[in-house]
Amino acid sequence: MQLSDSVADAAVKQYAIERLSKLLRHPDDLVYKADDVRRKLAQEKLLIDAQLSTDVRRQFDDVQEGIELLYSTRGQINRVKTDMQQVDRLCNQAQSYLTNFDRIQKISIANRNFVRANEFYLQFSEFHEQYTLVRQMLADAQTHFDHGDFNLLRLHYFLHKLEDFRSRALGFTGVSDADSAQTLQQMFGGLDALVAEFEAFLWHVANSIYDLALRGRANVVVQLLKVVEAEEAADRAQEREREGAGLARRQSAMSSTSSAASASAAAAAALARGPRKERHVKHYRQKLLDLIQTMVTRRVDDFIANEAAGLDAITEVTGFVVDELTFVAEAVAPAFPPSYFIFDVFVDEYHRAVVKNADALSSADDIEGGAILALLRWVREYYSAMRKELSIPRDRLRPPLLDGREDQLAQEYLDIAVRKIREWVANLMRTETASFVARQDAPTMAEDGLYVTNASVFLFEIVNQNIDVVIEAQRAKLLCDLVAECNKVFQDLAKQWRDLLDAEKAKQIDTPDTVAEGLVDYTMSLANEQIRSVVQAETIRDETGDRLSRSHQERFKAELSQTMDIFMNVAEAATQTLADIVFSDLRPITSALYTVDWYQDDLLQPVIETLMDYCQDFHDHLDKYLYKRLMQDLLSRFALSYIDAVAAKVRFHKGQTSEKLNLELHRATKFFKQHMDAGAVAETLNVVRILISLIDSTPTMIFLEFFSVKKQYPDLPLQLVEDILSKRDDLEKQQLKSILESLRQKSKGDTGSSLAKQRTLFSKLKNYPPLGSTTPGRFF
Q1: Residue 582 in this model has a pLDDT that exceeds 90
Q2: Residues 6 or more apart in contact with residue 436 via CB below 8 angstroms
Q3: Where in the sequence is the signal peptide annotated (predicted)?
């Protein structure tokens, strides 16, 4: 198989795949459209087969006709050859009948030369008059050019006659008469200047094609083209003459002898034609095309310099090129012969001029990110306009704009944009962190009473600017890449905030006297600002995502969802910091649970008062969603503090412990119901009720109580139950040992993997990590 065959097969397969992809766009089409597509393709195949059969039959008929014509032509050539040989014989025989044939022939030649010499004399005597007339015609044409009152064809005709006469005159003299040749050169010296002046005028007319077409003077353009075609015909004749002369010299060298009659005939023919000086080939057509290239390039360059300078106005070029080519198609192209394919020539030249300017703009060292996007948007609009307005496909326009570097420029823009965003974020972070650490003034309060920093406004200002320009450039993939790169920046930003929160929280808890006041307020402002960022990211996702194509919509929304998660994680870290600060203040009290002080004093009241102060601030200045999350966290920590305290050296007194726990549970429930849903409060504090039930259960009911609780809380640590029972003062050692042994035997089937999907509040205990865990759980 030839390489061309394999390439053709690959092209056919690729076309078939593309055709099927257009017919079967969705998976369901294989079920609902496959039969219709199969029938349609079968009908098309039948039509194509019939057409091919007809074409093949027609080709065979044409070939047969051609073969028959070749046979008949060969016979005719043989007959002509025979006739010519007969003529030659008759000529030779006729010469023998004329005794003075050579003398008669010489007299005939002399007579013809005399006639030609007389004609040459008359033309020579009229040359100056004709020269003056042509010069005056040219001067008048130059003077009245703006009015179009001239005739290029007439002017060229007379000038061409003068050139032809000069060529013949110089040819007559040859090299045998040097004085005559010099005299003729002086005589015709002004003609070269006149020809040069005419050519300059001719190209001036060509350079004014747009103005002539605009003024309705297409006839002048037609005259110009007829002059060009006439000169092209003369060029071709000159080329043929050169080839003929060369062929004659080669034949003369190959022929050693020739008949006297043939030699005489050749001499007579040469004299009849008259010798000529070789004409200089002018190549007018190529010069015209070169002038069109220069003219178009100048027009595009002038427009860009005066009307569309710089990348900001590059989009104006599209309308200019479309208007220019429309004008060419309507007013200029009809004047040209079809063989010029002149509209395609203009399309190529305009496109090359645009490519040259676009390359110059895109290669600038100081190009900005916005300028790059403007350039990319313009490239898309340019190709679209050429296709819609002029029906010129993108593949027809070569070389491609920007040398096909759209993806490279998009990456350059992305690098510039991300670098600026990083710089902006770094500057913003320096200001925000300095303010967060110093805490010299109270945080800014919004109209709704929430503490804010307005950092999200500045942060998303630059992000939205870049997103807007990318959307205007209609670069959906670049938009997704931009958001993905922004997420990396946001990840770094989030880490800095989490590290700063941990550092400030540690100082607040460990050395509260050495840190500035207001950490709680500033942490609330930080959390609120993250929520505002989430809202802005969500707005971008919902409003912008629906404007993208389906192929990019999913990725864009996924990236923005990740953006929202990043900011939400920082917000949750801030609420965890608030909860840590609150319970660091309560640590002296929570660490005294089940101790003598707890039994003797009311330690819950200062806890409730402390929570009341904090929760009021949270309610007034923290985002409502975060406030609910924080209250749930505080409630969980409050409940678990009673469970974790079991690990300390405490004792449970029968009746007394459960009575006090029930009292505190009632008061805590009442407090938390003021800030939370009653169902959520009851569900969370139920773990304390379980603690009470394990403390109050009789020895015979402990086993049943334990497994009743396990059904609701599968992750209840056995170690916790053992500690509760071992610290009850009403169970004897032997009795306790038996109960614990029984509980251990029944709990052997519990593993970390089996409980991994059944985590409850007990999995968050600090002192009793969940089964299978190697590190203590963390609150959130």
Answers
A1: yes
A2: 500, 504, 522, 526
A3: none
How far are the Cα atoms of 155, 191, 380, 391 from residue 388, in angstroms, in the given order?
44, 52, 12, 6
pLDDT of residue 315: 79
Task: Write out the two tokens for 617.
Answer: 């601030």
Sequence letter at residue 680: A
Distance CA 338, CA 229 (A): 13
| Residue-wise pLDDT tens digits, 318-365 | 899 999 999 999 999 999 999 999 999 999 999 999 988 888 877 776
Spatial contact of 766 and 777, defined as CB atoms under 8 Å apart = yes
Q: Which helix (H) or strand (E) holds 636?
A: helix 624-644
With a CB cutoff of 8 Å and minimum separation 6, the contacts of 557 are 541, 545
Q: CA 740 to CA 734: how far, in whole Å?
A: 10
Query: At 149, is the secondary structure helix, strand, or coil?
Result: coil
Which has the closest alpha carbon to 463: 453, 475, 452, 471?
471
| Residue (of 641, 637, 632) closest to 672 by Cα position | 632
Longest dimension (CA), the chain: 169
Q: How many angstroms separate the CA atoms of 305 and 375, rounded?
A: 16
Element containing residue 280 per DSSP (H, E): none
Backbone angles phi, psi at 444, to 5 degrees: -65, 140
Q: The pTM is what?
A: 0.65
> And the tokens for 359?
């390359």
- For all residues of the chain together, what is the average pLDDT? 83
CA atoms of 292 and 228, how far apart (whole Å): 14
pLDDT at 613: 94
Q: For the segment 355-412, what is each residue's pLDDT rounded down to a tens digit?
A: 888 888 777 766 777 778 778 888 888 888 999 998 999 888 988 888 777 778 888 8
Residues in CB range of 435: below 8 A, 6 or more apart: 453, 522
Return the residue matching tokens 């990725």: 555
- Distance between CA atoms of 688 and 640, rounded to whole angstroms? 8
Computed over its alpha carbons, how large is the radius of gyration of the chain? 51
Task: Please classify residue 740 by burial: count the beta carbons closer than 10 Å to its beta carbon, then call 0-12 exposed, 13-18 middle and 19+ buried.
Answer: middle
Q: Which of 265, 267, 272 is nearest to 168 (CA)?
A: 272
**Given the structure tokens 């090359």, which residue do they identify?**
352
Identify whether the C-beta of residue 689 lies closer than 8 Å to the C-beta of residue 665. Answer: yes
Return the sign of the alpha-carbon dihedral for residues 217, 222, 228, 231: negative
Instruction: Enumerate residues 6+ apart whose C-beta is below 8 A from 355.
Output: 399, 400, 401
What is the rounded CA–CA span in Å between residue 168 and residue 273? 10
Those residues whose C-beta lies under 8 Å from the C-beta of residue 533, and which sit 6 or more positions away, are 456, 459, 460, 567
Residue type present at position 764: K
User: Out of 14-18, 541-545, 568-572, 682-686, which region has the weakest mean confidence (pLDDT)?
Assistant: 14-18
What's the N-to-C CA distance of the chain in angstroms?
71
Check whether 246 has a pLDDT greater than 80: no
The answer to whether 751 and 772 are in contact (CB under 8 A) is yes
Q: Characterise 148 by phi-psi region: left (phi > 0), alpha (psi -120 to 50), beta (else).
A: left
Residues 324, 210: Cα–Cα separation, whole Å: 10
**CA neighbor of 662 nearest in space, from 637, 695, 701, 640:** 695
- 395 three-class SS: helix
Contact 441, 517 (CB under 8 A): no
